[in-house]
Amino acid sequence: xxxxxxxxxxxxxxxxxxxxxxxxxxxxxxxxxxxxxxxxxxxxxxxxxxxxxxxxxxxxxxxxxxxxxxxxxxxxxxxxxxxxxxxxxxxxxxxxxxxxxxx
Length: 103
Known about the structure:
Elements: H1 2-21, E1 27-38, E2 42-48, E3 54-60, E4 78-87, E5 92-102
Parallel strand pairs: 3-5
Antiparallel strand pairs: 1-2, 1-4, 2-3, 4-5
């Protein structure tokens, strides 16, 4: 009986750990590039959405899956990017994993 409880507990614990690990969502942000700041491995683009929300998009070759997926955005481009969003006290950031479109 104790072994069944231990196995059940282990199963529930592993299910919880796996579900937490896969909770990172890829969110989409679309808007106009207002500024670009060069970084060590890529750059950060300030994107303003139609709803006047500002996101700081970190774009690097590694995060977008290699040089074939990497694009250098320009100020004034209308873009759509996907990635992981996080917020600080007064800023919204997105680690870009895919550049969906550039116009």
